[in-house]
Amino acid sequence: MGSVRWAFRCGSWTPSRSDWLFAARCIQREEKDRIGQFVFAQDAKSAMAGRLLLRRFVCERMGIPWSEIRLERSPRGKPYLAAPLKVSSGSDPEPPAWSFNLSHQGDYAVLAAEQGLQVGVDIMKTTMPGSSSVPEFFRIMTRQFTAHEWSVIQSAGSEHRQLAAFYRHWALKESFIKAIGTGLGFNLQRVEFHLSSEPLTQGRALRHTKMHLDEEEEEDWMFEESLLDADHHVAVALGPADKPDSAPLRPSLPPPTTFTLLSFSDLIASASPLTEEDPAYWDSFTMKAKAPQRQRDTHTSK
Fold first, then answer.
1. 281 within 8 A of 24, measured Cβ to Cβ
2. Which of 5, 110, 139, 275 has a CA between 20 and 30 Å from the CA of residue 99?
3. Are 171 and 235 in contact (CB under 8 A)?
4. Where is 30: in which H helix or E strand?
5. In sequence order, what DSSP letters do the residues of 232-296 get, joined into one string?
6. What is d(CA 197, CA 199) in angstroms, rounded to the nearest whole number?
7. Both ends of the chain: CA-CA distance in Å?
8. E strands of the chain, at which residues?
9. 277 near 21, Cβ under 8 Å?
10. Are 288 and 42 in contact (CB under 8 A)?
11. Buried b (16+ CB within 10 A) or exposed e, 139-165
């Protein structure tokens, strides 16, 4: 069983002209075009980092040459590997299939992948609401959480602690939704999270949170939680693969690991160009970087 947890700090990444143009050459043309349509440089950087994280994973962990990787998107926007190569291993059994998921929000892009399990990942940055007070923000979001979850959030202490608890619950819910691939139509009140009393700390991943689905505790799902820094909370949902003979989760999983922070050099270590250099792509990016920066209140996850 394989397990990957990678993070890249795109918020502080200031790509040079050569870095940005090389990165653009190393992703599929339609992804490059999609990234080019973003209005803000931060969004473009986050999306680019996500593409490079994903291609690095497929190349290095799945053993598919960079130039042969073909990524597509489901109708709900979830990336998947199209027609993966089959490597013949004689009479050896085929290894469990990989599941992978990406998220970017705040200052980071993250990737989580697991063999033989469904996986969803979500990252949230604790930020003050830009256009309303904390109580008003919570009122607007009332229907997203159960009464039990709101009691935990609103008893967390200061407004900043309440917001941290809010985004922690939000990341947990999003990680589950992304793992099962249902999208926006899922009623978030169907899932309720029960946190352990053990506090989250940087440099350590916990797997104590329990999920109730339709008021029944879900034994088949596990959730890993960690802090990339004081303001960025990550949740990874792990569930059984869509096979009737899937093994039980809990006895088979090793202890959770924290996310490994990668550099840009790490992202492109196995990269090979797919297209010709496009100098105008840098000019477009520098124009985005000069655009006024907005308050990022809403969740962005690609």
1. yes
2. 275
3. yes
4. helix 29-36
5. EEEEEEEEE-SSTTPPPHHHHPPPP-PPEEEPHHHHTTT----S---HHHHHHHHHHHHSPPPP-
6. 6
7. 26
8. 3-8, 71-73, 79-81, 98-105, 108-115, 117-125, 191-194, 210-213, 216-217, 222-229, 232-240, 260-262
9. yes
10. no
11. eeeeebbbeebbebbeeeeeeeebbbb
Two structure tokens written together for 41: 């440089």
Summarised one tens digit per residue, pLDDT across range 130-176 is 878 999 999 999 999 999 999 999 999 999 999 999 999 999 999 99
What would the two tokens of residue 217 be? 């505790």
C-alpha neighbours within 13 Å on the C-beta side of residue 118: 19
pTM, rounded to two decimals = 0.90
Q: Which two tokens stand for residue 148?
A: 């039990």
pLDDT in tens, 276-286: 999 999 999 99
Structure tokens at 274: 């797919």
